[in-house]
Amino acid sequence: xxxxxxVINPAIRMPALTEFTSGGGPVIAGPVWPFISIxxxxxxxxxxxxxxxxxxxxxxxxxxxxxRMVASGAMLVECLVAIMALLAATALHPADYFAINATPEVxxxxxxxxxxxxxxxxxxxxxxxxxxxxxxxxxxxxxSIFTRLSFFDTMAPYFYQFVILFEAVFIxxxxxxxxxxxxxxxxxxxxxxxxxxxxxxxxxxxxxxxVLACFAWGYLLYSGDISSIWVLFGVSNQxxxxxxxxxxxxxxxxxxxxxxxxxxxLIPLAYLYVTVNTASxxxxxxxxxxxxxxxxxxxxxxxxxxxxxxxxxILVTAIRQWRHLWQQRRTPLxxxxxxxxxxxxxxx
Length: 348
Prior knowledge:
Elements: H1 2-8, H2 32-39, H3 47-52, H4 66-90, H5 94-101, H6 104-108, H7 117-124, H8 135-146, H9 156-190, H10 203-223, H11 226-255, H12 263-288, H13 298-327, H14 334-347
Helix pairs in contact: 2-11, 2-12, 4-8, 8-9, 9-10, 11-12, 11-13, 12-13
């Protein structure tokens, strides 16, 4: 796919700025900032990738020095995926892009006319208008790029279905991992009320937590449209990233010889926290608690509010801890520190 993009060198047809930059777009109603930071999953600062998607990372690391290669390599590949997705979307004519990602009723209000979409629909063998969600955009964009080669010009259905299958597998894997983590959290939370639930190998508790987790995200999908649900997912995802950066900053303050290294976590944390709060407040005011909006949902609004309150509590607690660590004088390593240093030297 990457080699094909370099060979074909598709033109970017989407303008750098549109009339929807300040908001009111047919896909995402909010302005570019802060919504660009919470609606792009791949290539973004992602809490899901950090906490859930990194479960296999320890299996790739034999020594401490491997961490830089594995972590940096993963980020670069993830960024590459994001660039490929953006190329696929922006290589489409703007009217074709909006025709795919907006409902037919909304698209008619834009005053645009499709360009290549009828031809692509005929080549692929299905009507592509109004297929919101992003997967179809990626598939159509990549198909339109690869079929420009003469020996691929009859393979539009294959490329389209291949990309759809690729993304479906990716999404199902994410749902599987996320549901499993949600089950663990449910068991841990309700286990405070009923102790057997904390036992992850207790079958009734596992079934109960799994059903509850599936019902929760299933209800959210059933009760709202994809644009409002995706933003809610983005907010929760980036708040998880905030927690990850808080943990990283705390570990650096505790272990690093130069405490100023914590700025590598603090700077993105500050940007991310402001961005997520701005987007979440906008969604609560304009969408979730606005009866006139199609995405009106008291449940989504309450969930957003709960997440923001919890994030404030975590951040305030972290700031108090950081202040203590910053003012703390350097002390001898002690038994635990010596053990940690010995273990680190052994691994290196």
